[in-house]
Specification:
Length: 244
Amino acid sequence: MHGYVLRRTLTLVAVLAFLPAVGFAQAPAASVQPNTVYTGADGKYETAPDTALIQFNINAQADNAKDAYAQAQKQAEQVRQIMRSNGIDPKTAEVGFYSIQPMYDWKNPKTKVIAYRVSTSVTLKLKDFTKIGPITQQLADAAVSDSQSVSYTLDNIDEAKVKAVEDAYRHARANAEGLARIAGRTLGELTYASVDTFENIRPVPFPTQRMAAMKAEAAPAPTEQFSPQNVTVTAHVNALFNLK
């Protein structure tokens, strides 16, 4: 009985290992008709970003919820002042909802509440990349957040996706034309297509405030003298063509 179970398990593992390799090569849901060719290809579009996203959390802790909330409000005002000093309207910041969490002393059998923690997330969108360094440094100096991250993106991401799809379709059609030519046929019109796109955004982590405090006051910003990474949008196109 044990040997039978083992053989069935090994067979299942082999099938699962094979499936990802053929995922994109599967035919469309409708049955492929005679005198057609089905192909798939990847494409991409790469361009410089036009928007930087600075993301961080506001965290405050106190003995009671009222004081914790008051500290969070004070830190939020510090963020607004930092934005104003850099010529940015505070209203452009995206702030998440505030959460209040009781902190427990788990060593106490009665799990006594010893403090309250208030937190929220903040996202700043910048078009002027020269402001990234000063803002991240001022946030670290103000000890508003333990960590920060910066990522780059495109405002008009839909246009980039269209260009990635165009590139993928050119590859898919070229593959189909090559196959038709080898078979002595001529590629006809497109009868079916499916599209999948993906935007590659990699956040750049910034030092925690504790690490920043260890650096010299005149230390350059982490992004100084570096260019922002390009934004790459990839697409996969599956296409079904008639054959003449």
